[in-house]
Amino acid sequence: MSAATAQRRVIVVGGGLGGLWATLAIAGGGQKVLLFSLFEVMRSHSVCAQGGINAVLDAKGQRDSIDQHIHDTLKGGSWLANQPPVKSLCEAAPSLIRTFERMGVTFSRTPEGLLDQRLFGGVKHRRTCFAGASTGQQLMHGVDQQVRRLEAEGRVQKLEWWEFLGLVKDADGACRGVVAMDLRSLEVQAFRADAVVLATGGLGQLYAPQTTCSTNSTGAAASRVYQQGARFANAEFFQFHPTAMLGEDKTRLMSEAARGEGGRVWVPKDPADRREPGRILEAERWYFLEDWYPAYGNTVPRDIASRAIWRVCRELGQGVGGGDRVYLDLTHLDRGFVESRLGAILSIYRKFAGTDPLDAPMEIFPAAHYAMGGLWVDFEHDPASGGVTPGSPRNHATSIPGLYACGECDYGYHGANRLGANSLLSASYSGRVAGEAVLSCLAGIERGADDLPAAPFQDEVARQQAINRELMTGQGSESPFQLHDALGALMTDRVGVVRDNASLDRAIAALAELEGRAAHMDLREASPWANQTLAHARQVQDMIRLARVMAASARARDECRGAHYKPEFELPLPSAGDADGPAWQHYRERWRAENARWLKTTVAEHGIDGPRIDFEPVDLSVLAPDRPRDYR
Amino acid sequence: MSAIAGVQRLALRVAGFDRAGHGEASSRTAAAAERRDSSASRSVELQIRRQDTPDASPYWQCFRVATKPGDNVVSVLRALRLDPVTVDGERVDPVAFEHNCMEEVCGACAMLIDGRPKPACSTLLAELGSRIRLEPLPKFPVVRDLMVDRARLAESLERVQAWVRLDGPWDIHERAPRISQRQWAADYLYSRCMSCGICLAACPQFEDAPAGERGFLGPAALAQVRLLNAHPLGRYDKTERLHAIMAEGGLSDCGNAQNCVRVCPKDIPLTTAIGELGRQTTVQALKDLFGG
C-alpha cells in the first residue's frame, strides 16, 4: 500500500457537535476514527444549545445576503476575528442546514412547509433556523445517528467513559497519539494515531456555579495541550449570556430566541416597587434596552445586553427588588405561538423556577456562557475566493503538528464577541473543515504511528500515572470540590463582565496561590474503581492553569472590545446625530488609533512562570473595519 | 375518558410508578414556588443504595444534608461530595453519580427517587419528603453507586437502524423537502428523546437480563422508528426498520402497561408511537405475505 492510500487511524476527542462532524468527515473519507468521550456520546454540552443556527436562506422577504451575515459576524465580534474563515463559514451555512435536514433534523417549518427562520441578536434579518427551542439537541441527534451508522459498519470505534489526559509527541514534536484514562477502571493507556482532533468544548466551569455550561465544560483538555505547547488565543474574550435564570447550583440558559421572538427586558422604574410584575403598569416600567438602543432594542448583541443589565443592577441600583435581576417578559405574546417556538425553555423555567413564563415575566441575570477564545488554529487563505482553501491541511491545525482543534475549544470565528446562533454553525462547520484538513494531512504522512518506537508513549503514560499516584496518595488537605468553588467565585468576581487592572492583578496573584493549593489536595477517596474525585481533582488543577491564561490575557489588553470591558479604557460613543460633526470625527480618530494598537489576536504560550502573552495581526482581507460598533 | 384514565392509574399504582398527572404537576409547580420564596433552609435525610463495583453487593447508607431553597436531587448530591459523613458519623467515599447539563436535556442523571425513575436534576426537593430514597436506575448494570451502564440503549438504536442512510454528509445542492407544520409538530415530540432510559426502567417487559437472544427493544428505540419512518428520506428504509421490530424482542413484546408514557420526563407520546407502529407492522406483514 502506498502512503497515500494506507489506512490511517485518527483520534477525535469529544463527542459533541464539532467532534461528531469531524468524525463524519474523516470516517467518510475512508479513515478509521477512534472517538473518545467522557460519557455516552449524546450527552455532550451541544445538546444544551437552544435557539438556533444561522444560515442565510433569504426566504423571509428581507433581502438577506451572505455578505450581510459576514458583516454582522465580524462587526459583532468587534472586528477581531480573522476574516477568511468567517467568510467561508457564512458561505457554507446554507449547505450545512440542507445536510442536517437530510439527516432528519426536525427544523421548525413555515406554513408552506419550508424551513422557518427567526430573529436573533446583533442582526436585522430573520436568519436563524431552529427546531423549537432545543436546536442543539436536534442537530446532535442528526450527526449522532450518522456516526452510529458508521460505528455499525466498523468505521468508527467509540471509547466512551475515557478522559483525555495528554498528547504523545514524536522526536520532531509532532502529535502521534494520546494518553487517556478509563474513568471506570482508572487504567491509563496510550493510543497511537496519525492525527488527533480535539473537540472538547468550552470552559464555563471556570465560573461555576454562575454559568450556563454543563459540568463537563471544564476546558481541562484544552488546558492540557496548552501545557504541552499548544498556543491559546484570545483567552480574555469570554461571553456572558445576558439572560440566564437565577440559581445557586447552576444559572440555566434562557435562549436569546426569547428576545428574538419578541420578549422584552425591563425593570420597574421605581426600584422600591415590590408589586407583582403583572400589576406594574406599562408607564411604570423601564424597557432600558429599547430606551438605550432604539435601532436594535432587545436584540442587541450579548456583550451589549449583559453590560446594560449589569449597569442597571450594579451601577444604577435599578435591579428588581434592588437585586441582581431584571425581567425577561413574554407575557404580552400569543401563548400558542410562544409554546410552539420556545416550549423547551418554558419547560426548563417552569421546572426549576416553579413559575410559568406565560403568566409572569422570567427573572434573569448575565452568566458565564461561551469562550470566544481557545486553542490557536491556522487557516490557509485562498486568494481566489477570499475565504479559506478547501481541504488545506493547515485549516484548524493547532501549533502542534498533527493536532487539530474544532468547536468551542478553538478560537476561530467569533472575535471578541459571538453572535447568537453562530455557535452551532461554527461547531458544525469547523468540525467538518478540521476533518477534511486531517484527511489531507494523512495523505502526506509517510510513517504511520504504529511504526514509531514505544518510548514516547510509555513516557507519557508514566507521567500521567505519576500525577494520579501523587493525587491518590497525597498528604495535602485541600478539597478539589472546594477549590473549584473558590475558582468559580474568583473568576466571576474579578475576570467577569466588568474588569479593571488592579482587580486583575489580584486575580493573577490569587490564581497562583490557588494553583499552589491545588498541588496539595486530599481526595478523601481511595477507591480504585470509578473514582470521580480523582478525575475532578485533575480537572481542577488544569482549570486553574487555564484561568491564569484568561486573567493574564485580560490584564494585557488595555481597551474595551466586545466581551472584554475595562471601563478605564472606554471610548464612549458620541451621542447619535451628525456623523460628520467634530465629536464623531474626533471619536473616529481615536477609534482608529485604538485599532492600530489593539486590533490583534492575543496569543498565550505556556511558560514555567506562567503564561507568556504576545500579539499577532488579524487577517482583515475581506472587510476593512470601517465603522465602530453602534447598535443605537 | 375518566374510566380509562382510572384503569390506567390503577395499573400504574400496581406497577409502582404513579406519576405526576396534570393536577399533580400544577401542585408541584405551586410547591416549588412556595419553596423558592421560603428562605428558611431545612435538612433532609438521603437513603442511598450504594455498590462499590459492578460485582459487589449493594448496601444502604444514610446521610443528613442541609438544603437550600430551590435545591434538586443533583444539587444535594453535589453538596454531599464536600463532606460525605453518614448519620452514624462515618466518613465514607463520595457517592458516585452521573450528571452533566443539570437542566434535563442530556439524560445523564436518571435514577430511582423514592422508587420512581426520574431525572435527578429536575426533581426538586420541594416535591419530596424529608426522607429521600435514591437507587440506581433499574434494568441496567450498576457501575458504581448511582451510576449505571446504559449501553443497551445504543444497541437498541443500532438494531432498529435509527438513522437516515445518507449518500454522504456533503451538500447535494437540493432544497430541504417540504414538511407541513402539522407533521413537524408530531415528529418534534419524538425528537426530544434524551436517551435517559427512564421509560425502560419503568417498562415491565424491558428486562435487565433478557432470557432470549435478544431482549425487548423498549419504547425509546421504538419511538425513533416512528420518527425516522416519517421522514421524507428516512422512509426509504422503513421496511428494514419494520422488519427489525417485527423480529424477536420487537414490538410484539410490548405488554401495553403504558408505564413508559407516564414516566417520560419529556412527555413523549411513546404509546402513540407504539400504536402507530402496530399499524405499520400489520401493513408490512401483509406486504410480506402478498408482495407489494
TrEMBL record, chain A:
Keywords: Electron transport, FAD, Flavoprotein, Membrane, Oxidoreductase, Transport. It comes from the Bacteria. InterPro entries: FAD-dep_OxRdtase_2_FAD-bd, FAD/NAD-bd_sf, FRD_SDH_FAD_BS, Fum_R/Succ_DH_flav-like_C_sf, Fum_Rdtase/Succ_DH_flav-like_C, SdhA/FrdA/AprA, Succ_DH/Fum_Rdt_flav_su, Succ_DH/fumarate_Rdtase_cat_sf. Its cofactor is FAD. Residues 10-424 form the FAD-dependent oxidoreductase 2 FAD-binding domain. It is a peripheral membrane protein. Its main location: membrane. Residues 484-629 form the Fumarate reductase/succinate dehydrogenase flavoprotein-like C-terminal domain. Pfam families: FAD_binding_2 (PF00890), Succ_DH_flav_C (PF02910). It is an enzyme of class 1 (oxidoreductase). Belongs to the FAD-dependent oxidoreductase 2 family. FRD/SDH subfamily. This is succinate dehydrogenase.
Automatic annotation (TrEMBL), chain B:
Its EC number is 1.3.5.1. Pfam families: Fer2_3 (PF13085), Fer4_8 (PF13183). InterPro entries: 2Fe-2S_ferredoxin-like_sf (IPR036010), 4Fe4S_Fe-S-bd (IPR017896), 4Fe4S_Fe_S_CS (IPR017900), Beta-grasp_dom_sf (IPR012675), Helical_ferredxn (IPR009051), SDH/FRD_Iron-Sulfur (IPR050573), Succ_DH/fum_Rdtase_Fe-S (IPR004489), Succ_DH/fum_Rdtase_N (IPR025192). Keywords: 2Fe-2S, 3Fe-4S, 4Fe-4S, Iron, Iron-sulfur, Metal-binding, Oxidoreductase, Tricarboxylic acid cycle. Residues 25-46 are annotated as: Disordered. PANTHER family: SUCCINATE DEHYDROGENASE [UBIQUINONE] IRON-SULFUR SUBUNIT, MITOCHONDRIAL, SUCCINATE DEHYDROGENASE IRON-SULFUR PROTEIN. This is succinate dehydrogenase. It comes from Thiohalocapsa halophila.
